[in-house]
Amino acid sequence: MIIVIGASGFIGTYLVDELIKNKFEVLATGRTNSSESYYKSTGIKFLHLDIANVNDFKKLPTKNVEAVVLLAALLPANVKGYNNPYDYVDINIKGTLNVLEYCRKNNIKKIISTTSYADVQNLWKKDYKIKESDPRNYRLSGDHASYVISKNAATDFILHYNEEYDMSGSVFRLPPVYGYGPHSEIYVNGKYYKSGFQVFLEKAIRGDSIEIYGDKNVSRDIVYVKDVTDAFISAIKSGKAVGLYNIASGKPLTLESQVKNIIKVFSSKDKKSEIKLLPGKKNNSSSYAFDISKARKDFNYNPKYSFEKLLLDYKKEIESKKFEFLAKSHPKK
């Protein structure tokens, strides 16, 4: 059995779907009623679980668990108003420890969790791929500071349990993961905004002109949710997966190329959006890319989706309405 903790979230929902396709027995846990309804409708086992509540772990099975995937976390994008550091400690640090203790006590050796790409934010630059061996270098101010600190501590506890208790814990460092789900609106510094991707998408569908601020050649390492779920499944099957891994595309894409692809896929033939370059307007985006050779070597991680292919599949997911409940679960004003 594979236990997916945080299966009510975006990556978790896609992961459970892929695990079932790969013939794994799955127990999904989460905190939302919409996800419980979805899993009950598909016949997948589901439990309500609060990782910050150690007593909730008594609900989980104690035998025949092959691996635990920990995706439950508190993220700044979901926090309205004040970012309370105690909340990050309770959920991201204590919650991870509760999961690790559950695994230790029940002799579950394999756990896979995630961490933020912002743990190396000060290393982001064009034409350099960040490696797992690069030391952390992150910002101690801003709405991501408490989050990154908490995820760093959680990562260190997983690595500590590997050494102390002979576990095989892995941590996936993820850049923003694209896919159909709850990212049309996010919180930035506690304030509600439409994501840049959603703005571009809506303008392309309407055929409106799309403005690119600042440097059109700012490049980002964009990864699709289905490549991420493939990484989880490959790591579960592998006997070599342990430690920190960059799970990204490994191929940075310029802002202009992103917009051109969005127009190609989502604009109608009758009304194609035009691109307006505004280099004088400030764009806070930075270039970043990640070296994925370690994951490729240890468990044959091989991203399959180019950005255009990602968008085409994204469009199919919207039309299928299979995970429509995810899109409705984005943060509220």
Describe the structure.
The chain is of the alpha/beta class and 333 residues long. The protein has a domain at 2-181 and 222-250 and 288-307: NAD(P)-binding Rossmann-like Domain (Rossmann fold, 3-Layer(aba) Sandwich). Helices cover 38% and strands 19% of the residues. The protein is built from ten helices and 17 strands. The strands form six sheets. A seven-stranded parallel β-sheet has the order 3-2-1-4-5-7-14, sandwiched between helices. It has a two-stranded parallel sheet with strand order 6-17. Strands 8-13 form a two-stranded parallel ribbon.
CATH architecture of the domain at 2-181 and 222-250 and 288-307: 3-Layer(aba) Sandwich
Ends apart, CA distance between termini: 38 Å
| CATH superfamily placement of the domain at 2-181 and 222-250 and 288-307 | NAD(P)-binding Rossmann-like Domain
Q: Can you give the helix content as a percent range?
A: 25-40%
> Which series of helices and strands comes N to C?
EHEHEEHEEHEEEEHEEEHEEHEEHHH
Mean pLDDT: 92
How would you classify the helix and strand content by structural class?
alpha/beta
Number of helices: 10
Q: Name the shape in a single word.
A: globular
Instruction: Order the strands across the largest sheet as they lie in space.
Output: 3-2-1-4-5-7-14
Which stretches of 5+ consecutive residues score pLDDT under 50? none
